[in-house]
Write a structure and sequence with these properties.
The protein has 163 residues and is mostly helical. The protein has helices at 48-54, 60-69, 73-100, 111-141, 149-159. Mean pLDDT is 77; it is low at 27-44 and 109-113.
């Protein structure tokens, strides 16, 4: 079935406008039929936009879960992007923690200067991660395929193009 290019909702063949966001579907759409709502099949009970937002809820963990259990292209896009974005940031924070001596992993960097720079860098990355997490959840819930510039391309190369 075709999908809306703006919000990713599944639409029936021959529909001129998306039933979810109202966007025109272009020349491929013909007259007749009714738009399919942007909800999962009867057994699943979770709307695509809610599932897309939940892909980011616990970072890469929920991204992995939704990537394996949900086959809808919109949800798989957000799941793959969540795995790459938050998996990469998690690895970066662990590496910084090890280098500058934070957390349970010890560290190689020492001295007051290393600790000050390390603390600043670690804090900036943590704040950036929080802001990105909120932004991605809101955009996914609004039905938008917001692409994190580098991470979306990496996700598509690893997990394949999802729509």
């Amino acid at each position: 079935m075709p999908h809306c290019t703006k919000c990713g909702a599944t639409v029936a063949d021959g529909i001129a406008f998306c039933g979810s966001c109202g966007a025109p579907l272009g020349a491929a759409a013909g007259p007749g039929g009714a738009a399919a709502p942007a909800v999962a099949p009867a057994g699943a009970g979770l709307a695509e936009n809610a599932a897309g937002a939940l892909c980011y809820a616990l970072g890469w963990v929920t991204g992995l879960i939704f990537f394996f259990i949900d086959k809808r292209p919109y949800v798989r896009f957000h799941a793959a992007q969540s795995i790459v974005v938050f998996g990469g940031l998690h690895i970066l924070e662990i590496a910084l923690g090890m280098f500058f001596g934070f957390g349970m992993f010890g560290g190689f960097g020492g001295g007051l200067v290393g600790f000050g720079i390390g603390t600043l860098l670690y804090t900036l990355i943590s704040i950036g991660t929080l802001v990105l997490w909120i932004l991605l959840m809101v955009k996914a819930y609004q039905g938008q395929r917001f692409r994190v510039p580098i991470a979306a391309n990496i996700a598509e190369s690893i997990f394949g193009k999802t729509a």
